[in-house]
Amino acid sequence: MNEHDSEKISWILDGMGYEITDNREESDLIIFNTCAVRKSAEERVFGQLGELKHLKRKNPNLLLAVCGCMMQREDIREIVLSKFRHVDIIFGTNNIHKIPQLISRHLESGKTIVDINEENREIEESIDANRKYSYKAFVNIMYGCNNFCTYCIVPYTRGRERSREPENILEEIKLLAKSGCKEITLLGQNVNSYGKTLERDYTFADLLREVNDIEGIERIRFMTSHPKDISDELIECFGSLDKLCDQLHLPIQSGSNRLLEAMNRKYTREDYLNKVAKIKMRNPDIVITTDLIVGFPGETEEDFRETLELVKEVKYDSAFTFLYSIREGTKAANMENQIPDDVKHERFQRLMDTLNEIGLEKNEKFLGKIVEVLVEDVSKNDESVLNGRTTSGKLVHFPGTKDLIGSIVNVKIRRVKTFTMEGTVV
Ligand code: SF4
After folding, report:
1. What confidence tens digit (pLDDT) does each residue in 77-124 have?
2. 245, 268, 286 — which closes off a domain?
3. Which atom of ligand 1 is nearest to the CA of 145?
4. Quick check: is 123 in a domain?
5. FRET label pair with 195: which of 3, 109, 125, 339, CA 20 to 30 Å apart?
6. Count H helices, E strands: the chain?
């Protein structure tokens, strides 16, 4: 979500005559688009802001702005205002479109401008985005979240759920398709509940069906899905929509019902496993990935073993794994029985070992097979090697020339590792 917000910010600045540079020394404007999900990210932002003080001294015309989820929190804004007085503009997630105004307000007054806009969270349709790639794009379909998982700060920073009108989404995707975009990732904190705030009966599955009909679009992905809201109608789409990728990211967080309740996830491991079984029945090739939190307050060895068992049962191809870290402002931050770091790390390692073993086993099934790969880029280390993704989201490396970037090619898989595969174009 933040990555796509940065693409929107870049589009606005482009319209103002700014150009992107990697060189801080020659910058006229530096914007930090921050994330509040992890404490470590927050600390990095403070570190970077501190480092920029000398640059502001050297170049007093340099403008420094901070935006994103961190700035939605009053306590964090106060830290920035008191400790980093060289910051010129602070704005929130709801007023990206106001950047030109905010810059001119600062230039006219010379004062630090703070514009957060907590109340008005209307969807701003006037902003486009400077997308990083021409052949694949993120498209927001909704904003905010109503779920209040007890460890998560997002509902407090991004506000309540709001769905974009389907016509606006479809129009955006049609324009992307016309300009050569092949793959769309529909974005929302919980795409499965898309449509609930619309004034008509329209679901996420309805939207997927309409996107599937758009000429030029060849692949549809989405993230993220809340397991409690994944409907039979949506599961059906995995069997009926030819452009819907064989991939589903379905965050479980824990395999223990006791912890799922403490997390306020509103499903049990049994509900989750039932849904996974239905999805696999509808599409046996589907690759399922997940998010897992290790060391949530009160997690016992037994709870953790239940997570390991569930991981083995679902056989996730991969997972985003997190060591639980306290986020001030969430319910879990005040829970008793916080887990000591050494216990968290030891469990984390066991979880990684299990996931890696399963990941390799799942990838080995691709050996000798021919897969369709959307070519994304050249390898960082070797310009003669390209990389791209299968419809199931697997990263594949293969020899090739740059002119293939953006096309879909057939690759025979000749070698697999835990997280990547290698092959040759056939
Ligand atoms: S569903 Fe839960 S974890 Fe996801 S954004 Fe909403 S509150 Fe956070």
Report:
1. 999 999 999 999 999 888 888 999 999 999 999 999 999 876 666 788
2. 245
3. 6
4. no
5. 3
6. 13, 17
